[in-house]
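Here is the promised in-class demo. Please do not try to memorize the tokens; focus on the logic of going from shape to residues.
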């Protein structure tokens, strides 16, 4: 019995030394960062910006691997099944928390199959209307929708996207009735909003703020808990009479499950360093985004909370899961 205990203690110490040694020498070759979204979008832009600085902090190149498809599921699944050696990472976005409620079958578990590193970036969505609708704030929009149920049409970048679910959350919290018009992308929805072919759109601040500043659109409210530094003149939804409302676009860095805690610690430190560099912070804030850089434990809690919140909204809004 004593010999067995001594052997277990020896093996445990040997494994710890092995992990420590691997972390000390890590990384020894380029690291692949999977972006499970189409090229040229916000995820691609943020991933490349972060990857450049992260590579500098780690002393190795970060190779961007664009793997779009199935609402980010294809690239995320590739990361989930990768060798947990620290050489494959994935930049997930809000869709990571929406897909468990939207997909009847996922090839991975959004929590258990990943080792969290950090919540990298968070940015608000903004509720937009054309001036011709004749409303100047969110309260007036809600009053109009209540007075004329089903008259207002609202667009989205597609069924189950963050803007769609944020608007459904608004409907659930206020009891208003509006008609959803899904598009194949935010660009087309924004074009139709500018032409007043739809009356409302909840979308990212990045492509929409220039139209607000030119007077072509009105920004009624942002969906974060506090105002955006990129558009401090636009109130929050909470300030507009719906306390506690929150629906953001976010990006988080994950590794495959069972990645060594020592390697995760090293990746976390380098990512925080990259996010807090003046160059990265400045570019993110200019685009309406905020660097977050929380802990792996905080990210795990955040992801579970997001999944729980949006799965409930999907169920209450009766949005049918995709197969």
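The designed amino acids, position by position:
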């Amino acid at each position: 019995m004593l010999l067995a205990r001594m052997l277990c203690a020896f093996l445990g110490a040997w494994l710890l030394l092995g992990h420590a040694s691997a972390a000390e020498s890590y990384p020894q070759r380029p690291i692949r960062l999977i972006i499970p979204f189409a090229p040229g979008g916000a995820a691609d832009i943020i991933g490349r910006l972060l990857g450049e600085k992260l590579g500098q902090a780690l002393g190795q190149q970060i190779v961007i691997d664009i793997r779009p498809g199935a609402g980010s599921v294809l690239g995320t699944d590739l990361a989930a099944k990768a060798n947990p050696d620290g050489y494959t990472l994935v930049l997930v976005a809000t869709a990571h928390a929406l897909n468990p409620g939207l997909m009847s079958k996922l090839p991975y578990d959004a929590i258990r199959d990943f080792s969290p590193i950090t919540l990298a970036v968070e940015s608000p969505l903004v509720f937009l209307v054309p001036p011709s609708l004749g409303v100047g704030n969110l309260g007036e929009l809600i009053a109009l929708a209540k007075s004329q149920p089903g008259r207002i049409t609202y667009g989205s970048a597609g069924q189950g996207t963050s803007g769609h679910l944020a608007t459904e959350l608004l409907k659930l919290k206020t009891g208003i009735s509006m008609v959803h018009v899904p598009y194949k992308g935010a660009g087309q929805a924004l074009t139709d909003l500018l032409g007043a072919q739809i009356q409302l759109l909840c979308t990212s601040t990045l492509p929409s703020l220039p139209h607000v500043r030119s007077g072509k659109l009105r920004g009624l409210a942002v969906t974060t808990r506090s105002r955006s530094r990129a558009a401090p003149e636009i109130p929050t939804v909470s300030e507009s009479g719906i306390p506690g409302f929150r629906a953001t676009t976010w990006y988080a860095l994950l590794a495959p499950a069972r990645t060594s805690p020592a390697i995760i610690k090293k990746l976390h430190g380098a990512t925080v360093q990259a996010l807090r560099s003046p160059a990265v912070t400045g570019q993110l804030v200019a685009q309406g985004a905020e660097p977050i850089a929380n802990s792996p434990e905080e990210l795990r809690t955040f992801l579970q909370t997001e999944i729980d919140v949006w799965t409930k909204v999907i169920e209450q809004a009766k949005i049918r899961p995709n197969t």
